[in-house]
TrEMBL record:
One of its GO terms (biological process) is response to desiccation. Pfam families: LEA_2. It comes from the Eukaryota. Residues 1-63, 334-356 are annotated as: Disordered. One of its GO terms (cellular component) is cytosol. SUPFAM superfamilies: LEA14-like (SSF117070). Residues 93-210, 219-335 form the Water stress and hypersensitive response domain. Belongs to the LEA type 2 family. Residues 346-356 have a biased composition (Acidic residues). SMART domains: WHy (SM00769). The lineage of its organism: Eukaryota, Viridiplantae, Streptophyta, Embryophyta, Tracheophyta. This is Water stress and hypersensitive response domain-containing protein. It comes from Lithocarpus litseifolius.
Amino acid sequence: MASYDKPEVVERDVKDKEHEEDDKPIVVERDVKDKEHKEDDKPEVAERDVKDKEHKEDDKEEGKGGFLEKVKDFIHDIGEKIEGAIGFGKPTADVTGLHVNSINLEKAEFVIEILIKNPNPVPIPLIDINYLIESDGRKLISGLIPDAGTLKAHGEETVKIPVTLIYDDIKNTYADIKPGSIIPYRIKVDLLVDVPVFGRITLPLEKTGEIPIPYKPDIDIEKIKFDRFSFEETVAVLHLKLENKNDFDLGLNDLDYEVWLCDESIGSVDLQKSANLVKNGITYIDIPITFRPKDFGSALWDMIRGKGTGYSMKGNINVDTPFGAMKLPITKEGGTTRIKKNKEDGGDDDDDDDEE
């Protein structure tokens, strides 16, 4: 019986040993998983370290920027204190006017006046003056005036910039700008000055307004009416027709021209009273004249018979405009008019029959 029981013990031992072998992989697997968890934890720590480092770098940059701002503020404060203590300051400037010296059919000459004030205790140089005149964003003229002078200490100076606009240049460049029109302008001026403490600074200025592109009036002798007729001396009245083709009125205040009848000069004529030539309109004026018909030769008989009489006119008219005084030329070549006598001189005084 004793020998029969031994195999059972051996079998149990073998089974127990198998169970022990089965248990070992469980422990190993748990150790592997624990090791994997530890490996997964490492990137989180590393990532946190990187972020902390980035925050430190940002703080450093912010600290650096803040430092620069503090330095700038400090320098600005020092500059203001020096300015207050020594009395240095920025100059001021303003466009005080634009004065037309002359204007005619060819060009306009005017002067831009700029008042500059220097608050500093020392003279300062006006290095450059840059100017530009434009119309609706289109350049008309520009220029540079170098070494423009010196501004005296604690004083003010009026700087004058002469400008000439050539109308042909403008009309050739911009076809839509017509004679007789008014165009807007904008003047831009940059003054470059050298100021102690501040260094070189630019003072920008602007002014707007309007300038004309003038057009000469058309002139005709509608008729010549005799007040007193004789061969030795005849007193007559020229009925003049003037057409103003400009977009602005012309205040006629003087005439300076000569008249020819039948190729014979009857001399210059005088304007007895001023007249207003309305814009884009026709105005009639009467001008008295005196001449000697016997000097006209055979053409005298054509005049007496009321036939067409040739005439020419050449000279200038002086007018006032919203832009200043102008001297405009007037010419008329190869015109024809009729001479009308009063009834007492044997003529018909009906004006309606004489106008053409």
